[in-house]
From TrEMBL:
Residue ranges constituting the Helicase ATP-binding domain according to the UniProt record: 25-194
Gene3D superfamilies the record matches: HRDC domain (1.10.150.80), P-loop containing nucleotide triphosphate hydrolases (3.40.50.300), Winged helix-like DNA-binding domain superfamily/Winged helix DNA-binding domain (1.10.10.10)
Recorded family membership: Belongs to the helicase family. RecQ subfamily.
One Pfam entry name: Helicase_C
SMART domains: DEXDc (SM00487), HELICc (SM00490), HRDC (SM00341), RQC (SM00956)
Gene it is expressed from: recQ
The protein's name in its UniProt record: DNA helicase RecQ
Biological classification of the source: Bacteria, Bacillati, Bacillota, Clostridia, Eubacteriales
Species: Caproicibacter fermentans
Necessary cofactors: Mg(2+); Zn(2+)
Cited PANTHER family: ATP-DEPENDENT DNA HELICASE Q1, DNA HELICASE RECQ FAMILY MEMBER
Gene Ontology CC: bacterial nucleoid; cytoplasm; replisome
Amino acid sequence: MDTPQSLLKRYFGYDAFRPGQREVIDHILNGEDVLAVMPTGAGKSVCYQIPSLLFQGVTIVISPLISLMKDQVDALSQAGIHAAYVNSSLSPDRQDAVLENAENGKYKIVYVAPERLETDAFRALIGKLDVSMVAVDEAHCVSQWGHDFRPSYTKIAEMTALLPSRPVVAAFTATATPHVREDITRLLKLRRPFALTTGFNRENLYFEVEKPRNKTDALLEYLEKNQGKSGIVYASTRKTVDSLCQRLNGSGHPAARYHAGIPEAERAKNQDDFIYDRVNVMVATNAFGMGIDKSNISFVVHYNMPQSIESYYQEAGRVGRDGGKAECILYYSASDIVTNKFLIENGANDSDKAVNFQKLNDMVDYCNTDKCLRSYILKYFGEQNAKERCENCGNCNSRVESTDITVESQKIMSCIARMGERFGTGMVAGVLRGGNTRKIREMAFDRLSTFGIMKEYSAETIREIISFLVADRYLELRGDQYPVLKLTPCARDVLRGGKTVSIKRAIRKQGANQSGAVHADEKLFEILRRIRSRLAQEEGVPPFVIFSDATLREMCAAYPIDRESLLRIPGVGRVKLEKFGDLFTEAIRNYAEENKIPIPQDISVGIPGKKDRKAPEAVGDTKKESYRLYQSGLGIDEIAKKRGLAPNTVENHLLGCLRNGMPVDAGLFVTEEEERLIAEAVKRCGRDRLKPIKEALPETISYGAIRYVLCKSTRE
């Protein structure tokens, strides 16, 4: 009998559930509604996918992004789970066919765009299904307090009520404040839900806030150090996205762009290029990323400060979904405050502005705290017991030096006041440095007592102090195109001498804490990545759907050279083992032989005729099926196509049958001439290692042919 544990291993390749997963699954299987708040990368999808395989009926998954449903369905299909999707990209006839197939039991999971719920025709169709569960992904979209409110999400409860019998409703989100959680329960009409919050902490993420003098230069330097890695660069405006993407491409860092102003066809192509690893860097506004299932994103750089902690953590959380170490870098400047204030003023309802301005203030505080960045985020989301130091953020990994800048601040504030609070940073800095410009003379600012009183400071230093004073709310920037500096009540206290000002700088910053990282063989990792890319192209899916980077790195650390040892690697399930396993074990075995890497004695190398070899493996059902098709007259490629396997896998099936005494025709593998050449090469090179034999033969002769000859000679 299938259990959640056995299904986890069979389809997903893991021996143990992550924290919170089993609890959620058990409550769902008991027929209870669920509200699960779990960080990105914690495995929310497994919490509804496993129950869907055990329920009698179909599971409907409400997912917000049409463009990503295909990838999610492809990933399930590669794992051996029958799934489909319904959204506006399908014709009405195709939508009908999907739902009809679901009614007939062909699909266990159907992904649905929330907008479909608003049509009477769709409601009528879905009413015919035996729906066991409705899983709501990105459930915070139902709340106006959430950072991604979608009105169509409010129709979910109506749809559920129209079904012949009420299914289990399970809501999932990565970021939700207590207020948003209350909204989710109320608006989805959850019935006494089992509520689980596993915590917002993601230990594999490294957080850092930087205040570079030139953000573009800082970004180019960062990308240079992280070449070959996949990452997202977020910017606040479309104009910044376009110019930044152009600059990156011109500097040798291939990048794609994404924002709402780009034609839909180009957006779709750019997103595919990123997901399929054709480009490593995506430059985007916050229109990009929700529901992105790409597991190998290594970094997110925020070129501009987001409007809220919720938005920041949601966007930053798109890295490291495979559990590998990843970095979240935020570039901050005072001008980000001006941009965000403008966006709030012009984009929000009057009733929302006060809330959004408060969220912006919290975001500014995050950018300027000298305390643990992770702790700040966790406490914002209500985790009051968060550790004071995480030792894995820019602040914890730095020595902070405090400098008293009260006198400098008073000079700047006095100058702003004497200039009538009508000018921006550049003009104020010019007066303080004693600039001899026509505008300064015409305005008679060269006669002010503050003229030239900071001439020993560079313009950059004065700008940096002004940015700090804005961030700490001593000064305020008002206006959009030409922002001017204003004094706040806090500044008056400083001018009167009632308050001191100190600026804190991080000294000797360290990189991301790599403790606990898998120490993988990087050369082998690249070999396996190339195999994965080829398979992904053949299968028409993103590379990470074949195996995640984390799974490849585990392979590169453990060197599994047969199926038994490969199946022990996290992320390798039985379906993928059958489809792809032999290609990876062969590559690892050849690499280990070539580089004289010792392999544990209890692992079979799988070369027929080798001393102390294991007894022939049992012929399992999958090998018997390949052998049955062979007996019916099909060739290796035909069997592979019919079964959805790689030809190499079918070769290994038939060789396994041969080792167990079942006759296999030599013509499937070799010609008479090739068999003669292989036999001669074996005499010269010995039979303990495949690599030397392969190198002694023409390139057209495959490893499968060599194995056949070795296996045949052993039987004889």
